[in-house]
Specification:
Layout: H1 6-24, E1 37-38, H2 41-46, H3 48-51, E2 54-65, E3 68-72, E4 80-84, H4 92-102, E5 115-127, E6 135-149
């Protein structure tokens, strides 16, 4: 049996306690996704300061094209928010259906004549009351992309 001094026992005890505490947090506690608040575009448009810097989940009609995309809701006079979709954040698997729908069938762009794209987005909502583009979601996930093509 090895002999330990009281200093060595104290260090061993602290090390074991730290390992047990970290282990009780579960696997990669810091990597767990934060929950997003499901909200309407109208709520974001009407009270943006309330949701600024929060993770949100929102659905709507995608508009735009080469210079950027936005998300609108017909229930609030087509007012909307801009979408910041960065390659480093959003996986290719999430981006592909949206980009395919935007550049498929007829004119390029999400809201070209005869084309309507809807989708659900999860990300961090940013509100800047003095900015030219003052309501933006920094997109993390894109889900439920649907393309409706109306014959012209």
């Amino acid at each position: 049996m090895a002999s330990h001094t009281s200093g060595e026992l104290k260090i061993d005890f602290l090390a074991i306690t730290a390992i047990l505490c970290l282990g009780s947090l579960g696997p990669s506690a810091s990597a767990r996704p934060l929950r997003a608040t499901t909200i309407s575009i109208c709520d974001l448009v009407n009270a943006p300061e309330r949701f600024s810097n929060q993770r949100v989940e929102v659905s709507g009609h995608v508009i735009g094209g080469f210079h950027g995309l936005g998300l609108v809701d017909d229930d609030c006079d087509a007012k909307g928010i801009s979408l910041d979709i960065e390659d480093e954040i959003v996986s290719k698997r999430d981006r592909t259906p949206l980009m395919s729908a935007a550049y498929k069938t007829g004119d390029a762009g999400a809201d070209a004549d005869g084309k309507r794209i809807t989708a659900r987005f999860v990300g961090l909502f940013k509100y800047s009351p003095l900015g030219r583009i003052n309501r933006t979601i920094v997109v993390e996930k894109i889900r439920d992309v649907k393309l409706l093509v109306v014959a012209q």
